[in-house]
Amino acid sequence: MIKARGLQRRFTSRGRTVEAVKGVDIDVTEGELVGFLGPNGAGKTTTLRMLTTLLTPTAGEARVAGCDLRADPVGVRRRIGYVAQGGGTGPECKVAEEIELQGRLYGLGKADAIARGKELTEQLDLSGLDQRLTKTLSGGQRRRLDIALGLIHSPKLVFFDEPTTGLDPQSRANLWEHIRTLRSEQGVTLFLTTHYLEEADTLCDRILVIDGGEIVAEGTPDALKARVSGDGVVLGVDEDVTTRAAEIVGRADGAHDLVTTPGEVRFRVPRGDTALPALLRAFDAEGLTMQSMQVQRPTLDDVFLTLTGRSLRDSDGGDTDTADGTAANGTAADDNDGNDSDRNEETTRVA
Ligand SMILES: Nc1ncnc2c1ncn2[C@@H]1O[C@H](COP(=O)(O)OP(=O)(O)OP(=O)(O)O)[C@@H](O)[C@H]1O
Ligand SMILES: [Mg+2]
Fold it and tell me: The organism sits in which domain of life (predicted)?
């Protein structure tokens, strides 16, 4: 569904150059739900805008939904849906009208647009709301409307930019359910960006972690957690044997990131539960006693911290203004025919 190679985007404004995306490779297969995780300013939206033809890459190439990004941007747009960061629908428009209008923009006849709209509003729990003005919707309802708009033409591949940012935990969980249903009932392939660790962890089959415009890790949430940082282990020992205990741990298979303080040895190891019996034997053989032990399963934040030296949590719940500063109508049908659109650099926030 997506195969991108060396995708790169540089912005130059007022003599200053930002390497927003530094040559990323992305592979997504049909039916996958892939998360693109990274802190503010990492390059998520820029990558998404390239993949959805809204922004021309400085270098690199991609096939999206079977069409070449550069040679056939119109083909890409016909086959994909895009729910932009922050979404944005006309505030004075009724829900049903908005959906019908969107359908007609995508070339559906009036009757088909209405029928498809009805189907989507039912699926997304918006049925009772079709006569409401969109400005009166709650955050979660509005986000579901954005999704309906992005799905009007039954795309096989949908891009979501920060689908749940700004929603309360309950609406967020509700939206996750809708996203899962889309995948399971309609076989839609989904590519979403997020800076919420929980979202990436619980929702996605696979995660790509981006930082500073580069993909720094990828894998299933479990594989990422296991491979990159491993379990955290804390051993308590008598203070006077801390150094000897640390030496034993240092010889253990796969132990890394060893930190000692008097009476305590902390380290990481791929699997804490399987490493401990061998360690206990080694302690015994040297006549040392382990006073306590604790194994902590890693979180995605540990993964990020290991990779970048920074915590992704710092950006959790941070501000959410769109990097492109627009109130796009939430689809790839923006009237920007695949050309560069640095139109918003005035409002761009450098994270
Ligand atoms: N039109 C633009 N002109 C200049 N710089 C830009 C433009 N768009 C994005 N950038 C810069 O490129 C970098 C990546 O931005 P991008 O919007 O892709 O990040 P993001 O990962 O989506 O962040 P967020 O989580 O805040 O949405 C940032 O430093 C941003 O300021
Ligand atoms: Mg963004």
Answer: Bacteria
CATH number at residue 287: 3.30.70.100
For 73, 90, 191, the CA distances from 194, given in Å and listed in that order, are 25, 25, 10
Q: How do residues 170-187 score in pLDDT, each as one tens digit?
A: 888 888 988 998 888 888
Q: Are 102 and 116 in contact (CB under 8 A)?
A: no
What's the domain range around 235? Answer: 230-297
86 and 103 inside one domain: yes
Neighbouring residues of 204: CB distance < 8 A, sequence distance ≥ 6: 33, 34, 35, 192, 221
Q: Strand 206-211 and strand 214-219: pairing? A: antiparallel
Asked if residue 46 has its Cβ within 6 Å of ligand 1, the reply is yes
Rounded Cα distance between 290 and 292, Å, is: 6
DSSP string, 209-229: EEETTEEEEEE-HHHHIIIII
What separation in angstroms does the CA of 75 have from each of 71, 146, 315? 9, 22, 36
| In a shared domain, residues 185 and 209 | yes
CA 166 to ligand 1 centroid distance, Å: 18
Task: Please write the tens of the pLDDT for every residue from 222-262.
Answer: 888 876 667 889 999 999 999 999 999 999 988 988 999 99
- C-alpha–C-alpha distance, residues 163 and 137, integer Å: 16
Q: Is the CB of 11 under 6 A from ligand 1?
A: yes
Q: Check if the beta carbon of residue 94 is closer than 8 Å to that of residue 134.
A: yes
CA distance linking residue 299 with residue 303, whole number of Å = 7
